[in-house]
Input
Amino acid sequence: MTTKRPIRNLALIGFMGTGKSSVGRLVADLLHFTYLDTDHVIEARAGKTITQIFEQDTQQVFRNWEKKIVEELTLRDKTVISTGGGLPADQENLNSLKTHALVVCLWASAETIYERVRDHDHRPLLQDSDPLEKIRSLLTTRAPYYRQADVLVNAEIRSVREIATQVIHQFHMAQSAHR
Ligand code: S3P
Output
């Protein structure tokens, strides 16, 4: 746990397919917090899907959107924020999340992630001839960022409800420690 700081929100970070959205929605429900998914906000603002942003614009345009949303998040209160998998792989984004949220990382192995995402086609970064290798390589690059989370939760075998319960427990502990 890091030094004393305000914890008004809860941010879920982690690789694609680790369950940030399902866990985030349940946590928000149980805490009576607002749920916000950065990918959904970007799609609504841009008026196109993430795949279209990657294809018609560039990945950099998508990352610029993420930066803008991260800035706006500093104004939020009582919000569970589910972030896109690459959003915290930018030190400024990660630092910013930590100014107002408990940052929880959901972790799973490359093999488990692959099994979970292999039938999905809405993630442009995984439309690759060797998606498992792509996952491994992105995980290696991103691990140093994911490890900076306040709490690391193994999302490998537990159910969504078990993970949500654990996340809420950590959130309550952090809030009382920082009060
Ligand atoms: C990305 C993850 C996706 C989405 C975009 C890029 C990434 O979000 O933001 O496709 O760079 O890992 P999920 O982690 O919700 O799939």
